[in-house]
């Protein structure tokens, strides 16, 4: 159940805007045409069935996660892989942005005072979600358990109570959003189908996040995918039946789901409570990306198409850098569109269905190569899914190009170029360092001893341990400290001579009271004049309490990085002295 909660809320909550997207297209041909929402929804549910079966197969074939990226990379080649990866990255980032924007808008519908603060509300929830996911997917799943169950019960309750009534209990909203200005035709129906396919977003998240499941991972993930498909299909068909029977059309100030809620429960406190539950579910639906995208970024990092740090996992375990990347990208996108859902949906659907199409084509290729028992039927199923999702992608791209879909056309090639450039760089590094090959013979130790330079900031309790460590590491040790004037230099010299640790002290003058550059110049000059191997020991203070670490001088880290960059061949060791204050 935790897997369904953590990775499926995006797909389930899409019923809040999927049917409305269909109605917004059909109403352009007249309010009576909104009745066609039901047959369009039935076609979408048929496509949902194909996708659910397909992604159950993806889970079995690629249990390491990655979804469309893993399928395309392994079955269609690296170029198709990076295309699928770029589409998935866009999909996941937009999932966060769309979910938070839609959640804020739904909440503002119930409480109009929040309407001027849609962006602030979205960003605040984004910060909370990021913090929860940095704690780990298991913890966030427990947090999401109750809201997800309440959302499922609420939507099913709207359908059941609404269908049981002979007429709506109440009506909300005013004025039809648009008037008839288009003729009903094949193109309009295709546009309605493509728009409504936004309700299928998130179906692939379970296949992308298989490593998040408990063992046996494949069985648990496949069962979760099936539960998701059944729930989503029932919700979509139920809401479409209500739209058709009650002639619910898009109106100003309210969503179609809000109208259906009022029709089932009335406009009293139950209507407000249901709206709050839907708003919470929409905001938490962004958690799907926090579960799936970090895993995808980790796979890309392992394939050397992203920096290796995205493959790192914390103790919980969590891909922390992936979580932070999702949050940063979604936050920037929300700011760019001022948290307006209608500006995000065209970008959203194109990215989603590009990934769907690539995944289906990849599986067709896989079955044709592997030829397992009954492979022809599986290939036919996936081929049908590929054709349907390709049609949806093309229609969306053509009809929504000027409304924002052009951004995807620009961003996808840029992401592909980024992945390719990083891969070429890592490959070049591997060739230069001969990674993966053993040297011809064992390296001989240097005949000369090592010179150790201890870069001091000031004298104190950490000076003694630093010198003792340095003496154990090399043949000769030199302590170096920066002085701002002659008086300060004499004071330092007198203190050192009274202590007499048996180590030579070099005092580097710095009239401008800078510390890093004089030390770096001394180290570089010594390295050029002395042929012995050089090690630079940099003592630093570090608090055991993370909240106080920003109070300490970061000069030691800056010096260490400067030496690594400007003094080739020098070893650098940062020696922390921990304080408990």
UniProtKB/TrEMBL annotation:
<feature type="transmembrane region" description="Helical">
    <location>
        <begin position="404"/>
        <end position="422"/>
    </location>
</feature>
<dbReference type="Pfam" id="PF13520">
    <property type="entry name" value="AA_permease_2"/>
</dbReference>
<protein>
    <submittedName>
        <fullName>APC family permease</fullName>
    </submittedName>
</protein>
<dbReference type="InterPro" id="IPR002293">
    <property type="entry name" value="AA/rel_permease1"/>
</dbReference>
<dbReference type="GO" id="GO:0016020">
    <property type="term" value="C:membrane"/>
</dbReference>
<dbReference type="GO" id="GO:0022857">
    <property type="term" value="F:transmembrane transporter activity"/>
</dbReference>
<feature type="transmembrane region" description="Helical">
    <location>
        <begin position="39"/>
        <end position="59"/>
    </location>
</feature>
<feature type="transmembrane region" description="Helical">
    <location>
        <begin position="80"/>
        <end position="102"/>
    </location>
</feature>
<feature type="transmembrane region" description="Helical">
    <location>
        <begin position="321"/>
        <end position="339"/>
    </location>
</feature>
<feature type="transmembrane region" description="Helical">
    <location>
        <begin position="143"/>
        <end position="164"/>
    </location>
</feature>
<feature type="transmembrane region" description="Helical">
    <location>
        <begin position="276"/>
        <end position="300"/>
    </location>
</feature>
<keyword id="KW-0812">Transmembrane</keyword>
<feature type="transmembrane region" description="Helical">
    <location>
        <begin position="226"/>
        <end position="243"/>
    </location>
</feature>
<keyword id="KW-1133">Transmembrane helix</keyword>
<feature type="transmembrane region" description="Helical">
    <location>
        <begin position="345"/>
        <end position="367"/>
    </location>
</feature>
<keyword id="KW-0472">Membrane</keyword>
<feature type="transmembrane region" description="Helical">
    <location>
        <begin position="184"/>
        <end position="206"/>
    </location>
</feature>
<dbReference type="InterPro" id="IPR053153">
    <property type="entry name" value="APC_K+_Transporter"/>
</dbReference>
<feature type="transmembrane region" description="Helical">
    <location>
        <begin position="379"/>
        <end position="398"/>
    </location>
</feature>
<feature type="transmembrane region" description="Helical">
    <location>
        <begin position="114"/>
        <end position="136"/>
    </location>
</feature>
